[in-house]
Write a structure and sequence with these properties.
Blueprint: H1 3-17, E1 21-22, E2 37-38, H2 41-49, H3 52-55, E3 61-64, H4 71-79, E4 84-87, E5 95-98, H5 108-111, H6 114-120, E6 122-124, H7 126-130, E7 135-140, E8 144-146, E9 151-152, H8 158-168, E10 177-181, E11 187-188, E12 203-205, E13 210-212, H9 237-249
Parallel strand pairs: 3-7, 7-10, 8-11, 10-12
Antiparallel strand pairs: 1-2, 4-5, 5-6, 8-9, 12-13
Helix pairs in contact: 2-4
Length: 251
Protein backbone atom coordinates (compact mmCIF):
# COMPACT_ATOMS: atom_id res chain seq x y z
CA UNK A 1 0.00 0.00 0.00
CA UNK A 2 1.36 3.41 -0.89
CA UNK A 3 1.86 6.14 1.67
CA UNK A 4 -0.94 8.11 0.01
CA UNK A 5 -3.39 5.19 0.31
CA UNK A 6 -2.45 4.71 3.97
CA UNK A 7 -2.97 8.38 4.74
CA UNK A 8 -6.36 8.31 3.01
CA UNK A 9 -7.47 5.38 5.17
CA UNK A 10 -6.22 7.11 8.31
CA UNK A 11 -8.11 10.31 7.54
CA UNK A 12 -11.36 8.46 6.81
CA UNK A 13 -11.11 6.32 9.91
CA UNK A 14 -10.05 9.16 12.17
CA UNK A 15 -13.18 11.02 11.12
CA UNK A 16 -15.32 8.09 12.33
CA UNK A 17 -13.12 7.54 15.37
CA UNK A 18 -13.70 11.09 16.58
CA UNK A 19 -17.30 10.09 17.30
CA UNK A 20 -16.32 7.37 19.80
CA UNK A 21 -12.83 8.41 20.92
CA UNK A 22 -11.84 9.57 24.38
CA UNK A 23 -9.63 12.66 24.12
CA UNK A 24 -6.11 12.77 25.50
CA UNK A 25 -5.24 15.58 27.93
CA UNK A 26 -1.99 16.23 26.05
CA UNK A 27 -3.06 15.76 22.43
CA UNK A 28 -6.85 16.29 22.58
CA UNK A 29 -8.13 14.98 19.20
CA UNK A 30 -4.81 14.85 17.34
CA UNK A 31 -4.86 11.16 16.36
CA UNK A 32 -1.54 11.57 14.55
CA UNK A 33 0.12 12.00 17.95
CA UNK A 34 -1.40 9.16 19.98
CA UNK A 35 -3.44 5.97 19.77
CA UNK A 36 -6.65 6.98 21.49
CA UNK A 37 -8.90 5.20 23.91
CA UNK A 38 -12.48 4.68 22.76
CA UNK A 39 -15.93 3.67 23.93
CA UNK A 40 -15.98 -0.05 24.55
CA UNK A 41 -12.27 -0.62 25.16
CA UNK A 42 -13.19 -2.32 28.45
CA UNK A 43 -15.01 -5.02 26.48
CA UNK A 44 -11.87 -5.45 24.37
CA UNK A 45 -9.85 -5.99 27.54
CA UNK A 46 -12.20 -8.73 28.71
CA UNK A 47 -11.87 -10.50 25.35
CA UNK A 48 -8.07 -10.43 25.52
CA UNK A 49 -8.12 -11.74 29.09
CA UNK A 50 -9.93 -14.88 27.91
CA UNK A 51 -7.36 -15.76 25.25
CA UNK A 52 -5.37 -18.97 25.58
CA UNK A 53 -2.17 -17.06 24.87
CA UNK A 54 -2.71 -15.40 28.24
CA UNK A 55 -4.52 -17.97 30.34
CA UNK A 56 -2.34 -20.89 29.19
CA UNK A 57 0.94 -19.01 28.77
CA UNK A 58 2.86 -20.97 31.41
CA UNK A 59 6.12 -19.17 32.11
CA UNK A 60 6.01 -17.20 28.86
CA UNK A 61 5.77 -13.43 29.02
CA UNK A 62 3.39 -10.69 27.89
CA UNK A 63 4.26 -7.55 25.92
CA UNK A 64 1.87 -4.62 25.70
CA UNK A 65 2.18 -1.20 24.10
CA UNK A 66 1.55 2.14 25.89
CA UNK A 67 -1.50 3.00 23.78
CA UNK A 68 -4.40 4.72 25.53
CA UNK A 69 -6.88 2.05 24.42
CA UNK A 70 -4.89 -0.52 26.41
CA UNK A 71 -4.88 1.27 29.76
CA UNK A 72 -7.85 -0.75 31.01
CA UNK A 73 -6.17 -3.97 29.89
CA UNK A 74 -2.99 -2.99 31.72
CA UNK A 75 -5.05 -2.30 34.85
CA UNK A 76 -6.78 -5.69 34.65
CA UNK A 77 -3.47 -7.49 34.08
CA UNK A 78 -1.97 -5.77 37.11
CA UNK A 79 -5.03 -6.60 39.20
CA UNK A 80 -4.61 -10.27 38.25
CA UNK A 81 -0.94 -10.25 39.12
CA UNK A 82 0.22 -10.58 35.49
CA UNK A 83 3.53 -8.84 34.88
CA UNK A 84 4.38 -7.44 31.46
CA UNK A 85 7.02 -5.73 29.36
CA UNK A 86 6.35 -2.37 27.71
CA UNK A 87 8.08 0.55 26.01
CA UNK A 88 7.19 4.22 26.28
CA UNK A 89 8.03 7.41 24.40
CA UNK A 90 8.43 5.64 21.08
CA UNK A 91 10.99 3.11 22.37
CA UNK A 92 13.40 6.01 23.04
CA UNK A 93 14.14 4.69 26.54
CA UNK A 94 14.14 1.02 25.62
CA UNK A 95 12.17 -1.75 27.32
CA UNK A 96 10.72 -1.77 30.83
CA UNK A 97 9.21 -4.55 32.92
CA UNK A 98 6.38 -4.11 35.40
CA UNK A 99 6.24 -6.63 38.24
CA UNK A 100 2.54 -6.56 39.12
CA UNK A 101 3.12 -8.46 42.38
CA UNK A 102 4.97 -5.46 43.83
CA UNK A 103 2.25 -2.90 43.25
CA UNK A 104 -0.10 -2.15 46.18
CA UNK A 105 -3.77 -2.71 45.39
CA UNK A 106 -4.49 0.98 45.95
CA UNK A 107 -2.19 1.85 43.03
CA UNK A 108 -3.29 -0.74 40.48
CA UNK A 109 -5.25 1.79 38.44
CA UNK A 110 -2.46 4.38 38.69
CA UNK A 111 0.24 1.89 37.64
CA UNK A 112 -1.70 1.23 34.44
CA UNK A 113 -1.22 4.85 33.36
CA UNK A 114 1.99 6.06 31.74
CA UNK A 115 2.90 8.13 34.81
CA UNK A 116 2.29 5.18 37.10
CA UNK A 117 4.22 2.85 34.83
CA UNK A 118 7.19 5.22 35.02
CA UNK A 119 7.06 5.01 38.80
CA UNK A 120 6.80 1.24 39.16
CA UNK A 121 8.43 -0.31 36.09
CA UNK A 122 12.13 -1.15 35.92
CA UNK A 123 14.31 -0.80 32.82
CA UNK A 124 15.60 -4.03 31.31
CA UNK A 125 18.47 -4.28 28.88
CA UNK A 126 18.21 -6.37 25.74
CA UNK A 127 20.68 -8.79 27.26
CA UNK A 128 18.42 -9.19 30.30
CA UNK A 129 15.38 -9.59 28.04
CA UNK A 130 16.93 -12.33 25.94
CA UNK A 131 17.78 -14.36 29.05
CA UNK A 132 14.09 -14.62 29.90
CA UNK A 133 11.29 -16.69 28.39
CA UNK A 134 9.69 -15.90 25.01
CA UNK A 135 6.50 -13.90 24.67
CA UNK A 136 3.22 -15.77 24.36
CA UNK A 137 1.11 -12.63 23.85
CA UNK A 138 1.85 -9.22 22.33
CA UNK A 139 -0.92 -6.62 22.37
CA UNK A 140 -0.98 -3.32 20.52
CA UNK A 141 -3.42 -0.65 19.39
CA UNK A 142 -3.43 1.11 16.05
CA UNK A 143 -5.13 3.49 13.67
CA UNK A 144 -6.63 0.75 11.52
CA UNK A 145 -6.30 -2.93 10.69
CA UNK A 146 -7.33 -4.93 7.63
CA UNK A 147 -9.10 -8.28 7.29
CA UNK A 148 -5.74 -9.97 6.62
CA UNK A 149 -4.21 -8.53 9.78
CA UNK A 150 -2.17 -5.70 8.29
CA UNK A 151 -2.25 -2.81 10.72
CA UNK A 152 -1.04 0.73 10.63
CA UNK A 153 -0.58 3.07 13.54
CA UNK A 154 0.40 6.73 13.66
CA UNK A 155 2.99 6.19 10.94
CA UNK A 156 6.15 5.71 13.02
CA UNK A 157 6.26 1.90 12.97
CA UNK A 158 7.08 1.56 16.67
CA UNK A 159 5.35 -1.77 17.25
CA UNK A 160 6.75 -3.26 14.04
CA UNK A 161 10.22 -2.30 15.23
CA UNK A 162 9.63 -3.64 18.73
CA UNK A 163 8.45 -6.94 17.26
CA UNK A 164 11.57 -7.03 15.08
CA UNK A 165 13.87 -6.46 18.06
CA UNK A 166 12.16 -9.10 20.21
CA UNK A 167 12.34 -11.52 17.30
CA UNK A 168 16.05 -10.85 16.80
CA UNK A 169 16.50 -11.72 20.47
CA UNK A 170 14.74 -15.06 19.94
CA UNK A 171 11.77 -14.01 22.07
CA UNK A 172 9.01 -14.57 19.50
CA UNK A 173 8.14 -17.75 17.63
CA UNK A 174 5.27 -19.36 15.75
CA UNK A 175 3.26 -19.73 18.96
CA UNK A 176 3.53 -16.02 19.85
CA UNK A 177 0.11 -14.41 19.43
CA UNK A 178 -0.17 -10.80 18.23
CA UNK A 179 -3.39 -8.95 19.06
CA UNK A 180 -4.58 -5.58 17.75
CA UNK A 181 -7.18 -3.80 19.90
CA UNK A 182 -9.27 -1.33 17.91
CA UNK A 183 -12.78 0.09 17.70
CA UNK A 184 -15.11 -1.50 15.14
CA UNK A 185 -14.82 1.60 12.96
CA UNK A 186 -11.06 0.98 12.71
CA UNK A 187 -11.49 -2.42 11.10
CA UNK A 188 -11.13 -2.32 7.32
CA UNK A 189 -12.83 -5.29 5.67
CA UNK A 190 -10.33 -5.45 2.83
CA UNK A 191 -7.14 -7.34 2.07
CA UNK A 192 -4.19 -4.98 2.20
CA UNK A 193 -0.61 -5.58 1.08
CA UNK A 194 2.05 -5.61 3.77
CA UNK A 195 5.57 -4.28 3.57
CA UNK A 196 8.33 -6.67 4.57
CA UNK A 197 8.83 -5.02 7.98
CA UNK A 198 5.12 -5.06 8.90
CA UNK A 199 3.94 -7.56 11.50
CA UNK A 200 0.53 -9.01 10.67
CA UNK A 201 -1.70 -9.71 13.67
CA UNK A 202 -3.34 -12.99 14.67
CA UNK A 203 -6.38 -11.41 16.29
CA UNK A 204 -8.33 -8.21 15.80
CA UNK A 205 -10.27 -7.45 18.97
CA UNK A 206 -13.06 -4.86 18.95
CA UNK A 207 -15.78 -4.06 21.51
CA UNK A 208 -18.20 -6.39 19.70
CA UNK A 209 -16.09 -9.28 18.36
CA UNK A 210 -12.78 -11.09 18.13
CA UNK A 211 -11.60 -11.82 14.60
CA UNK A 212 -9.02 -14.55 14.07
CA UNK A 213 -6.61 -14.09 11.16
CA UNK A 214 -4.59 -17.04 9.89
CA UNK A 215 -0.92 -16.08 10.17
CA UNK A 216 0.62 -19.54 9.92
CA UNK A 217 2.84 -18.29 7.10
CA UNK A 218 4.05 -15.21 8.97
CA UNK A 219 7.79 -14.87 8.69
CA UNK A 220 10.11 -14.38 11.63
CA UNK A 221 10.52 -10.72 12.53
CA UNK A 222 13.85 -9.09 11.84
CA UNK A 223 15.51 -5.70 11.79
CA UNK A 224 16.34 -4.61 8.26
CA UNK A 225 19.49 -2.70 9.08
CA UNK A 226 19.67 -1.05 5.69
CA UNK A 227 16.37 0.70 6.47
CA UNK A 228 17.52 2.17 9.81
CA UNK A 229 19.80 5.03 8.64
CA UNK A 230 17.93 8.30 8.29
CA UNK A 231 15.07 7.22 10.56
CA UNK A 232 14.25 8.16 14.14
CA UNK A 233 15.50 4.74 15.22
CA UNK A 234 19.05 5.41 14.07
CA UNK A 235 20.29 7.10 17.24
CA UNK A 236 18.44 5.01 19.82
CA UNK A 237 20.53 3.35 22.51
CA UNK A 238 18.47 0.18 22.17
CA UNK A 239 19.44 -0.05 18.49
CA UNK A 240 23.12 0.30 19.30
CA UNK A 241 22.72 -2.39 21.96
CA UNK A 242 21.00 -4.74 19.51
CA UNK A 243 23.73 -4.13 16.93
CA UNK A 244 26.38 -5.05 19.50
CA UNK A 245 24.52 -8.22 20.48
CA UNK A 246 24.10 -9.15 16.83
CA UNK A 247 27.83 -8.77 16.26
CA UNK A 248 28.52 -10.97 19.28
CA UNK A 249 26.70 -13.87 17.62
CA UNK A 250 28.72 -13.61 14.42
CA UNK A 251 31.85 -15.79 14.11
Amino acid sequence: MSRVDTENYRERIWDELSKVARPDSRFHWDFSSFICDFEGSEECSDRVLQMDALTKRGDRRVFITPDNCLEDLRFKLISRGVSFVMTTYGIVRGFYELDSSKIPASDHRYAATLDGFDRYAKPVSLDQLRRGSPFSLLVTGGSAVSSNGVRFGKGHGYFDFEWAILSELGLTDKSSVVVDVVHDCQFVNEVMPAERHDVAVDWVVTPTRSINVDQTTRQRGQVYWEMVPGTEFERLDVVAELWALTKEKQP
